[in-house]
Amino acid sequence: MARTDSADQGRPAKEKKARRSTIYDVAKRVGVSAGTVSHVLNGTAPISQETQAKVWEAIRELGYTRNENARALRTSNSKIIGIVLQDIASEYYAQCTAGILQRAQEEGYAVLTLDAHFSSDVLRTGVSALVNRRVNGLIFIGGSRDRDSYEMANAAGVPIVFGDRYVPDYPCVQFNNYETVNRLVHALYRQGYREFCYYGEALSSQQNLEERFGGFRDAVRALDIPREKCEVILQSDLDSSKMKKAFDYFHQWFRNVSERPNARVILTSNDMIAQGVISASLRSGLRVPEDVAVFGFDDISIAAYSTPSISTVMQDPYLLGDRCFDMLMQRMRNPREHIENLMLEQKIVLRESVKLDRDNAVAEGLSLKES
Known about the structure:
Elements lengths: L12 H6 L4 H8 L3 H9 L6 H14 L5 H7 L5 E6 L5 H16 L3 E6 L4 H13 L4 E5 L5 H9 L4 E4 L8 E4 L1 H15 L3 E7 L5 H16 L7 E6 L6 H14 L8 E5 L2 H13 L8 E4 L5 H5 L6 E3 L2 H17 L8 E3 L2 E3 L8 H6 L8
Parallel strand pairs: 1-2, 1-3, 3-4, 4-5, 5-11, 6-7, 6-8, 8-9
Antiparallel strand pairs: 10-12
């Protein structure tokens, strides 16, 4: 049964238009009950994807925000924040989380962490649970395709910051993934490499992976590298056991190479993958970097101690966590204040797995980590 607000009776049309939209307005627009809209907002009941999509569309069209009573409840300081990420087993994201935890402890905040395991269902349920715990704010690290979850939290009035990705209309802390990989390919070409391979995870799991691959793709196009000299391998099951799966793939791949590659370099999306590729190369009788060069990403602990050691892109996970925490505190203190997004710089770490002169790297505008 539709609800009628008697306060609207006889109100001038201009004043009606300025009235704040309610959950009942959203329900009426979609043709469902207010309870259904509430369940979509809070993730408290299984609602069809079609209905959820219609509810979120109506929320955006009507500019609906939560009611002021809910706002009053939310502003009570629980001294709890939440971190949402996809894979805490990753050394990089574990270090980022550790950085946030340290800052939170210093400021007297407890932290609840959600590891979504690249599952949209786990993500939706987990974010709903964090909202229901009345967290003061949320930091989403990495990831993509989670719009329903963060919009649900936003509609509930939870301040949100994104780390290692960009989302329009939200405060974000990013790394310059696209620019770094693009310039790296140009530097390797300047060095003399003419056969390029990109190997990494499927692009749908993380926005930063899309940016890295985009930098590679546009660089090989700009350099007019022939298609037969450029190979792209995006493996859909690389979200776990990265090193083993990379080893298995390239151990077979190198068997199918009839001749030893001429000045070939393989760029990978993280150091665990790079280590798997290097191991497969050596087991196949190839020398690294003389026969095949391998470049990693993240500069995790194994990179420096592998044999050969891994040339890689260094991005500081503690700095990312620190800046995300600062930005969330700023957002929580003053929700209406405009916050400038941050772009953090990545650095190139030159080690043994790739031949790349410092002069060629600097000439392409890359920033090098000092030894």
